[in-house]
Protein 1
Amino acid sequence: MHAMQYELTLPADYDMDIIRGRVSRVGHLLDDWDGLGFKTYLIRERGVHGSPVNQYAPFYLWNTVDGMNTFLWTGPFQGLADDFGRPVVRQWTGLAYEEGAAAGSPAVVAVRSRERVPDGAELSETMADVVRETGRLAAADGAVLAAAAVDTHGWEVVRFSLWDHEAPKAPGEVFQVLRMSAPGRERLPRGRQW
């Protein structure tokens, strides 16, 4: 499992209906993308859920690196880069994935948090804690799914969860879910990823 996200931070007066329209027009392109676990089409709007910015920030979980690379090098990503400029694409190696207590429900919001792994931390203990927290989040009322991954370049853990209601039980930045393409969600490996 491999996580990926890019963020397009837009002007404060940007009409976010432009992004909604774009997702409505092209979101279906990944509905059967080989190697994709899921893509969530996420936005933050200034003043909504405490967001200080307007932002388009899709989050992906990939079953295969081949699928991700095909998307980046030969797929719809070029259209986004042509329209908005090429964003920095963050990537993390999977640590844990769990389907949530509300797995059959549509996701309304997503929560993402990032934290640095402290210098000197015992890595096996720290990662085991991340796995346990992923399971706890997934078991919470209204959780659609929960995942965690790590960037070993900067030793950063990202936690990601989807919720079927507007009041998620997870700390972090809250995003509105516009759409989800999930051709390989059922094939994402559950639990600890090592």
Protein 2
Amino acid sequence: MTGFETAGLIERAKAITLRPDETWPRIAAERSSPGEIITRYALPLIAIGPVAAFVGGQLFGISMIFATYRPGLMTGLGMAVTAFVMGLVSLIVLALITDWLAPRFDGQSSRTQAFKLVAYSMTPGWIAGVLGFIPSLGILAMLAAFYGIYLFYKGANPVMKVPGGRAAGFTAVTVIGAILLNWLAALLVTSFTTAVSNSAYSASNAAGDTVEVTLPGGGTLDPAKMEDAARQLEGLASGERPKPVDASALQAVLPASAGSFTRDKVQSSGGGGMGALAQATYRKGDREVRVQIIDIAGLGAVAGAIGGLGVEQNREDANGYERIRTVNGVIQTEKWDKRTSTGTFGVQVANRFMVQAEGDADSIDDLKALVGAVDQARLAALAR
């Protein structure tokens, strides 16, 4: 019986993160293949970071030193695909390096054991990738990755039979080699995925069964939602995908008017099985607002899990404010600039769609009214 049959993905991720000393020997003794480790454990976790960053980029943009860049749907998807492929390449490259180096530090060479050591030690970094949803918290994912190095060190002896006295050197050399080879791999993979996209697009351990990830500013990750997301992502990895919503159907949901705003022009585009985008421009006098409905299709599993974070973030000064909050498990974003009378208001719908209004208006209430005019029940029906 393999480890994948005796322990679920979430339970295994909790165990290796919180109880490495007792978990590594069990992992070392399990019968599993590199293919099983990749498809049934690693892929769902690798997807967390790219999806969270994609959703965060669409809702909040990517903050730079003096500006905020909000990538378009196709650009965002291309970036997510690049990050996902790079995550997979990093796993494979590091496993190969680990297998090659182990005998040189008096350990045993084993391709399967190397994949175990690498995949399970990378778990904290993959899970913390959900912090990429809030761009300003993304740096915390790097801290989790450093904890993964410690897990690698702890697993070197039970998994690869590297003597305890040489485990630190083995870990250091492996990490250095991985940095160099992954840099080269990044050049190749980024070039490939860019071409594709251009052509189309704390932890706190309790004695019970729950684990929570506490985020700065409040909020915790709902383990049940993450388990649902993991199941759906495992389905994606095996080729199962939710039926994509037709772009024209999304376009039809955009209202002809909302309050004093009337629709000026409308357009839509599809991204195949990855999702679709419909947007319309609304005018009221010299005011102009753009309303978007973004369908992220199969990526909605993690997007829905993000709603369980419960993050509350508020920044305010004399010139305006920016807020992120969770209302009944649904993420809402709100931003307003008093100087220019411009802003953004967005919500998640049916754990799959993002509805957002952005532009210049008399007040944020205008933007909320435009988002509210989108028939959410109709959108939810499209997802089924």
Protein 3
Amino acid sequence: MTAETSAPAGSGLGFDPISRAREQWHEQGWDTAADGMAAITSLMRAHQIVLARVEATLKPLGVTFARYEVLMLLWFSRRGSLPMKVIGSRLQVHPTSVTNAVDRLEDAGLVVRSTHPEDRRAMLVALTSTGRELAERATKALNTEVFEQPGLGPDDVRDLVDTLTRLRSHAGDF
């Protein structure tokens, strides 16, 4: 992108830089890719915006979104615990990412790790009462500050979820 299209958020641009980039794609003769570029770039920029809102909401609670996802996965589990491998599979992340998140959560006293009682090769991660309380506070904050106010109307939210579900399905996400 040009310097014209790389201004930081809140810069007060009088134009949409992604729309301008689409025009430039057309000017270069890349017509068949222009809309796709605009869609993907818009999606990536929207991800940055939403992630910043989520992280700003969670920061005062001392947890990142990745760690929050682990807490909530454990919170929703029947026993409040899951094997590390299951956490990685359900969150669709690399085992190293799970280990990193669990290490940080354990250091903060939010989860405990133990050997799985039925498979000594596997590690079991369990939510502590402090972790459960934090998960509930974080969920309340996210619901109030982000999820109930996503920046789109209800019909647009449903349409967006449907569209992204199709994109994820087509990519083999599930």
